[in-house]
Amino acid sequence: METLISKIQELKLKKNAVILAHYYQTGNIQDIADHIGDSLQLSQQAADTKADIIVFAGVHFMAETAKMLSPDKKVLIPDLEAGCSLADSIKAEDFAEFKKKYPNHLVVSYINTTAEIKAMTDICCTSSNAIEIVQSIPADQPIIFTPDKNLGDYINRTTGRNMVIWNGACHVHEQFSLQRILEIKKAHPEAKIIAHPECQKPILIVSDFIGSTAALLKFTQKDNTKEYIVATESGILHQMKKANPSKVFIPAPPVDSTCGCNDCQFMKLITLEKIYKSLVDEQFEINLSDKIIQKAVIPIQRMLEVSRKAGLI
Ligand code: 13P
Ligand code: SF4
After folding, report:
1. What is the pLDDT of residue 259?
2. What is the average per-residue pLDDT within 284-301?
3. What's the CATH number of domain 176-251, 3.40.50.720, 1.20.1530.10, 3.40.50.10800, 3.30.1330.30?
4. What pLDDT is attached to residue 258?
């Protein structure tokens, strides 16, 4: 393991490469990354980096976003199969038909979408700026929100909007069991329930705090509770435990206790070995046409602009 890590470090220096890792990556990948973050933080890092090569330890839509923000850089994803069930829940041709039904609506898309969907979007958001993005749009402007129905519902409830919502969801965040969470809460009455907004409404309603992965981590650092039930992908627990060694973090249980579905199977496809191979062979490169980049980068840049103005980045 040590030799693999030093080989990765050597290659990174030699090739002026940077490794960006999402909080859902395994702990050993987070520990060797140059930057760890949620989707918003990583898109900002991708836009700002001086490196020639970005190795994206995350999923495909994140690497695509990095490529759009840094089109002159080589962006690599160590496994091309690292997709996203949520991004896959909306196809460009279906969305084109859907849009026709709402000609006066503006489109807000979660960043968990393909470049094609972004090219049909007015402004993107992530889970850490979704409320601010929607609030930046005039109250009388109708909105279509894609693709996550749980995040969309949460935004509607929080802002009082009535966005039309695409019927997509993430297979990891949809499987938490309210009943089993409440059983844990009974056994640990002091524990706070903290959840990602991609979770279903009943989970969000019983949660003490709702936020993106970065916001959940920050909450555990500022808050003085000692125990947390964490309703999101298990990778974030690595940083939570590192930042709060004396606190206890209990992963929220899924409906099926044998499925191991607290892990995003796509995120967990990335391994240290694949990162090394990716650096050696400079594979797998993200290639997008100039035409798609020119269109799809606009809603991402608008999102970054609103986030800057709101002091979120
Ligand atoms: P974040 O915005 O917290 O990075 O969420 C990304 C994601 O894929 C959640 O499933
Ligand atoms: Fe996509 Fe869900 Fe995995 Fe996030 S956790 S990358 S939304 S499949």
Report:
1. 76
2. 98
3. 3.40.50.10800
4. 77
Which residue out of 126, 209, 239 has the highest number of ligand 1 atoms within 8 Å of its CB and is therefore the one to mutate?
Answer: 126
* Statement: residue 257 has pLDDT above 90: no
Residue 203's CB: how many other CB atoms inside 10 A?
23
Does 177 score more than 80 pLDDT? yes
Cα 261 to averaged position of ligand 1 atoms, centre (Å): 16
Question: What DSSP character marks residue 94?
Answer: H
87 Cα nearest atom in ligand 2: 1
Tell how far the Cα of 161 is from the centroid of ligand 2, in angstroms. Answer: 25
CATH topology of domain 87-170+294-309: Rossmann fold (3.40.50)
- Please state the pTM of the whole predicted model: 0.95
C-beta separation of 262 from 234 below 8 A: yes
Q: Order the strands of the 123-125 sheet from edge to edge.
A: 123-125, 106-110, 143-146, 164-165
Q: How far apart are CA 215 and CA 209, in angstroms?
A: 9
